[in-house]
Amino acid sequence: MAGPKHSCGVVGMNATYNVVPSLQRALLVIQHRGQESAGLSVFDGKYVQTIKNNGLVDAVLNENSLRSISGNCGVGHVRYSTTGSHGAINAQPLTVQSVKGTVAIAHNGDITNYHALRENYFKQGWSFLTDSDSEIIARILSKHLYSTDEPFAAIREMMSELDGAYALAIMINGRLFGVRDPHGIRPLCIGKTEGGHIIVSESAALISLGAEFVRDVEPGEIVEIKDDIILSDKPKGPINKAHCMFEWTYFARPDSVMDGRCVYDVRKKIGIILAREAPADVDLVMPIPDSGRAHAIGYSVESGVPYEEGFMKNRFVGRTFILPDQSARENAVAMKMNPIRSTIEGKRILIVDDSIVRGTTLMKLIKLLRSAGAKEVHVRIGCPPVIAPCYYGVDMKTRDQFIACTHTVDQIRQSIGADSLAYISINGLVEALEIPKEDLCLACVDGIYPTRIDGEKYRYD
Ligand code: 5GP
Ligand code: MG
């Protein structure tokens, strides 16, 4: 059985004051990284208390539920599960009792050797409470905490057993650690508040807390976050970075800066490059809200074609992308977006979106544009065709989902009903990111993976 796959958000904080309100606020800022469950664990000097459940941050971590807990050190999590179990049992942080005290873990990413590890530990007589890869991380860490006195060494040993993507906030008996997998696939950064430090998936959370950005956690690095200082242990030997490009094109908030590049700036630059690579004779440029907005602004700036909003998005309709069947997804997209007829009618329109996966969103929205009187509809996409699964925590799992695996660009154009369609090139995307190609994970668009995965091409072979 497939374990739950998730691209989530994590936070950890250590301060001279109660960190619960700040953890809750940081989780609200990274809510887009996971809307299925939310939770936090804090250490009150003696015990770890955890509040977690299915639901959004403001429902699970409300004034009432938070009233009873406080502490100077804690970790928090928002979870975006895709396949596998959606039960509250998989909500995080996950806590286990180790010989060195309570371990609380918040995890973003996917452990690709999860099944092999689980089989191996089953044979050694272990059993598990959940089918989540985060539990195996917690238990392997506990095992190494038994055999070594130093948490840094135990975490390093744990990392040597894990493959795949992981950004972790770990609390061990009231001590806080941040960990990033050796390729730095998922983001994690450090901020400073008055009297404390915070680690969080996205720097946007620091702005909301009035915290100062300190730096990213480096690939393979372990940091201990104290209220006044940061201790670090870096891997020996060369580092092969592989930052997930989809964080910038779709997943992260535009106001976050990750590995030195602001998400908004990257998206705008993608739009600029798209305008150079694939110009069009049109009257207006429009974004698919919200994820295509910065891309569309860049396209408009570079091409000189005026920018307009053509859709109003209903923020209260939840995620359409993970609904289980096609007609449900199409209906939900239509419920979520209303066309603004006065900007559309009689116009040749170019719409910009961040990505095409199945093609559902655009098929539906182009119909809406035409019914609102659009004369022509041209489409530009800020991510090259998605052709290969993500094993590192983004909800793109099987090749049969990807329209670009079975259709040429022209066939996709026909199937979504567009007058023209162009995607940014891989080189164009890399240029927009301003990060060397070898430091990126582009597996979903080039099929070459930075870690070994059975049946897939490995980058370092
Ligand atoms: P499609 O409708 O082609 O299947 O998916 C593309 C649309 O879904 C784009 O508008 C993009 O913003 C959004 N999208 C792409 N990847 C994901 C994802 O992993 N999760 C969610 N919720 N939406 C996604
Ligand atoms: Mg979108």
Major sheet strand order: 3-2-4-1-10-9-11
Task: Give average pLDDT, whole number.
Answer: 94
User: Hetero groups bound?
Assistant: guanosine-5'-monophosphate, magnesium ion
Query: Given the C-alpha coordinates, what overall shape results?
Result: globular
Distance between the termini: 29 Å
Low-confidence stretches: 1-5
Radius of gyration: 22 Å
How would you sum up this structure, described in words?
With 461 residues, this protein is α+β, with helices and mostly antiparallel strands. Strands 3-2-4-1-10-9-11 form a 7-stranded antiparallel sheet. The protein has a 6-stranded antiparallel sheet with strand order 5-6-7-8-12-13, with helices on one face. A 4-stranded parallel sheet has the order 17-20-21-22, sandwiched between helices. Helix 9 crosses helix 10 (293-303), helix 9 (263-277) packs antiparallel against helix 16 and helix 11 (326-336) crosses helix 13 (360-371). It is globular. The chain starts with 8 loop residues before the first strand and ends with a strand. Residues 1-5 have low confidence and may be disordered. Guanosine-5'-monophosphate (5GP) is lined by residues 250, 288, 291, 319, 321, 353-361, 394-396.
